[in-house]
Design a protein that fits this description.
By secondary structure, the protein is of the alpha+beta class. It has 6 helices and 15 strands. The radius of gyration is 19 Å and the shape is globular. It starts with a helix and ends with a strand. Pfam families: 2OG-FeII_Oxy_2. This is Alpha-ketoglutarate-dependent dioxygenase AlkB-like domain-containing protein. One of its GO terms (molecular function) is metal ion binding.
Length: 235
């Protein structure tokens, strides 16, 4: 349980940190210290970059590709300024966090890995855990070398539809998935969407290793009643 708690904590605090990308990047740009902003009940405000002022009470300045600046403000300051600019509470942003990417960054608009995007290596502790979990599927003498990871965040009633992880150059290497938080049903289908899936019950701390023919199969998840579930996919 202690190790699971560690990975849940990392998934909420450090994994979404820039240069790692999240589903929020497309609209807000990179957001620093989201989890701390939630604890401090801060609000993210949008300002035109031409203002360029450094207001007291502002922190974690971020910018997106639309030449706007987004800043976290204390709630009382945000209330005063919120009448003239768009705003969103940090807690709302955290609840709407759906994914973040570690290592090589995945470009969801083009459905491929973009090596030109800034990125850091997968944290060593996560890399070593993935290596241990993948070992049964690796040829003798070879070691799993994950280059990317996707962290999915699911709330009550969320699902991940059937899909293939087919953007990797080498399909002979396995995919390692770790489940944290609530219980979930993992569905492993076949090579066609019409193939009936095999349902697997996942508890917090369970891992799924997809290798061989399973690497080419459709799969998806649905969350059972509870608060949330985090799934870390190492590829």
């Amino acid at each position: 349980m202690q190790e699971q708690s560690q990975w849940i904590r990392e998934s909420l605090t450090s994994f979404p940190q820039p240069p790692n990308r999240t589903n929020h990047n497309a609209f807000y740009g990179p957001i620093d210290d989201l989890f701390n902003a939630v604890k401090e009940k801060k609000v993210l405000l949008e300002e035109e970059s031409s203002i360029g002022s450094l207001d007291l009470g502002a922190s974690s300045c971020t910018s997106n590709e639309d030449a706007h600046r987004w800043k976290f403000y204390e709630e009382d300051i945000a209330t005063l300024r919120g009448k003239t600019c768009k705003s969103v509470k940090a807690g709302v942003l955290l609840r709407k966090l759906r994914w973040c990417t570690l290592g090589l960054q995945f470009d969801w608009s083009k459905r491929n890995y973009n090596v030109s995007l800034p990125h850091k290596k997968i944290p060593d502790a996560l890399c070593q855990l993935a290596k241990r979990l993948a070992a049964p599927a690796m040829p003798i003498g070879e070691e799993f070398q994950p280059e990317a990871a996707i962290v999915n965040y699911f709330g009550l009633g969320d699902t991940l539809g059937g899909h293939l992880d087919d953007m990797e150059a080498d399909w002979s290497k396995p995919i390692v998935s770790m489940s944290l938080g609530c219980k979930a049903i993992f569905l492993l289908g076949g090579k066609s969407r019409e193939d009936p899936p095999l349902a697997m019950f996942l508890r917090s701390g369970d891992a799924v290793l997809m290798a061989g023919e399973a690497r080419e199969c459709f799969h998806g998840e649905c969350v059972l009643p509870g608060n949330f579930i985090i799934m870390i996919w190492c590829i």
